[in-house]
Give the backbone structure.
Amino acid sequence: MRNHLFIVGVIVVLISSTLGGVVGGKVLSNEKVVSEHMKDFTSLLSVVEDNYVDKVTTQKVVSGAINGLLNSLDPHSNFLDEDAYSSLQEEQHGSFYGLGITIQSINGILTVISPIEGTPAYKAGLRAGDIISEIEGEPTKGQPTNQLLKKLRGPKGTKVTITIEREGWEKPIHMTLVRDEIPVNSVSYSFMIRPGTGYVRIKNFTETTTEELDSSLKKLKEQGMKQIIVDLRFNTGGLLDQAIKVSDLFLEKGAIVVSTKGRVPEANATYRCSDNNGYEQYPLVVLVNRSSASASEIVAGAIQDHDRGVIVGTTTWGKGLVQSLYRLGSNTALALTTARYYTPSGRLIQRDYSRSFYDYYYTDLGVDEDPTNREKAFTDTGREVFGGGGITPDVKVDQRVASKFMDLLNSEYIFFNFAKRFAASDERKVQSETSPVAGTVQVIDRNFQVDESVLNAFRDQLRNAKIQFTEKDIQDNLPQIKNLIRQEIFTALWGSEEGYKVASSQDKQIQTALEVFPKAEALMKLRKQKTASLNP
């Protein structure tokens, strides 16, 4: 019992001490009540450990109790164990030490999806489709991916030996690589999508996001950029200060970006743009979808409320709860909701979660229903917008839904495997002189198109993989099949950004974004007229 009291007492003291910085003496005023509840809890814990049908450990039960406590509050207050806290720190700091490869377990086989340019893996000649069969002489097949990642990562300057199996090679390749700092880029893609139009995709908000974005925009400006697409789809958020700084790049000095409101005075704040950065006059389109959340919604909401650009896509997630991070121990932390986010027009970003957390996370109830049923607000020029359910786009464009046949092909990694084998085929290989590891690279230029001969090879791939199909399946999905084949081949040969450029040509939401720039220009003009009338 004394051990139980000690463990639970430490947890309560740690939580209380960290919360003290926010709620002050109110924690101490509840000391007697907390003590009574601790007695009940420790008595319960003792009975469970002594009498439960299966053996349980104190750590497991206490962890479940912590999660139960937080689940009684809201969907986003969380206890971060050692692994979760470490991953969060890496993501926010924007770097870690390792080899620099994106890997995935495909049917229990550790497969390279893509090396990151400039990293040890890239310099060693690792390619998409390579199989990492051994790490330090131990087989990887069937092993948990997270454990294998830990083996590949390590302190800077240390070595790790891996064994690679590559399509077209009879013998395995043994490599010893030196770990180095690996940047976790926040801006995943940045290129001229057509003459005059720059495209940047921000995958999350970390400590380096604004710096990366500003650098990308400067390069695009040098290439003739006159208008900008900022893609926040699948961006689930990150650091608040970075969302404010990103907004600051496009909004005038002094413009409100977001406000936070909580139960205690320290949680209340209004954040404004601090500078003019030179991008305020560029027509702007922002892409969002159901997976855009938190910091992404702050940026999209600020752009929309100030009529600075056109929001295109589908309604965002609706995550408007502010988490403050409290460090509990050396390797654990508490992410506790302390406030709510409000856009410049005063609308709440957070959608309702009172029905159930399950519905909140796993269903789309109400996401695309008539937004006029929600709270109303108005932009700077008087346009009506809606709160309490994420950011509703100005131009709604549903994402393409894949057919069952395409879902089957993707689930079996057909396109990935086809590109890997196509690039290694004997009739198209040359000896690589640039890679430290002698290999084969595909002799295809960027004008490559998928013709009937390539499609015939693809049909053979389906038969070899024992995929049941008809010619109608091929013809009904022909544009997507051709595009995915080309995308994977470009990715295999020239990297993920080149493959992504191919994918963007068939991306319905991106193509719509290219079409609505006249609307973005008209909105900017209306905004200037409104500002001029208020400041004659």
